[in-house]
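Students often ask why inverse folding is considered easier than folding. One informal answer: many sequences map to the same fold, so there is more than one right answer. In these notes we will look at a single instance of the problem. The structure comes first.
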């Protein structure tokens, strides 16, 4: 009986030590990425190894799977880009602290009503946590890890860094990540020179860049672009994201 209790206590100590190491490692990881651009993400590595398979996917490359990824600072990107991303993905980005209860509630109501397409309620912060630190999937473990890393980046980064990371690691086509790579591929120009229409088109293909294409966009992509442009005007233009643009 005594040996059983000793083994149990020992296992408990080891478990606490492992948890402490994982916690400190995650803190260090997030702090490093506050100043250092990620060399790659799990999704980039997965796309490099395997071509995505799905109904309605467009422009999938079967042979050359090299990743097109060029990290750019906020100063090197047009102010139309963060405005378009906020207008398209998360209009309360500058207000919430990582989670948007209203968006989650609306998404839940839409999904329970039996809509044709499931609606998500993830914020930009949650998408950064998922894209930068985690693997792809829909398990409860991954969702819990996503919530954990969302809290960490909201505590240890500012909104400017979160947006800077998002516009660089978001998938914008097969093997294409970030607005610089997408801008060069689709518009043959730097992301610093994107006009509102081009920024809205790139933001409009999210979060389904393999189904909605920025090159030769179809009616659905054009409709999303127009909706994003209306939201950009309604928010008041680049003045709405001024704190993201200023040092």
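Output (designed amino acids):
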């Amino acid at each position: 009986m005594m040996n059983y209790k000793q083994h149990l206590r020992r296992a408990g100590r080891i478990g606490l030590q492992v948890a402490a190491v994982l916690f400190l490692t995650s803190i260090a990881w997030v702090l490093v990425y506050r100043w250092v651009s990620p060399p790659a993400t799990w999704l980039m590595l997965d796309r490099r190894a395997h071509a995505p398979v799905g109904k309605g996917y467009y422009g999938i490359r079967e042979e050359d799977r090299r990743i097109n990824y060029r990290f750019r600072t906020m100063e090197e990107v047009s102010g139309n880009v963060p405005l378009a991303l906020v207008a398209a993905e998360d209009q309360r980005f500058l207000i919430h602290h990582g989670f948007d209860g209203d968006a989650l509630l609306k998404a839940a109501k839409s999904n329970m009503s039996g809509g044709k397409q499931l609606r998500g309620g993830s914020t930009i912060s949650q998408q950064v946590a998922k894209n930068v630190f985690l693997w792809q999937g829909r398990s409860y473990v991954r969702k819990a890890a996503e919530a954990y890393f969302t809290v960490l980046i909201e505590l240890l980064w500012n909104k400017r860094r979160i947006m800077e990371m998002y516009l660089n690691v978001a998938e914008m086509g097969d093997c294409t990540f970030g607005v610089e790579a997408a801008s060069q591929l689709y518009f043959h120009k730097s992301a610093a020179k994107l006009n509102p229409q081009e920024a809205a088109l790139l933001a409009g293909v999210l979060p389904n860049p393999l189904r909605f294409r920025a090159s030769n966009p179809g009616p659905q992509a054009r409709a999303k672009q127009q909706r994003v442009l209306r939201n950009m005007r309604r928010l008041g233009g680049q003045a709405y994201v001024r704190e993201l643009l200023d040092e």
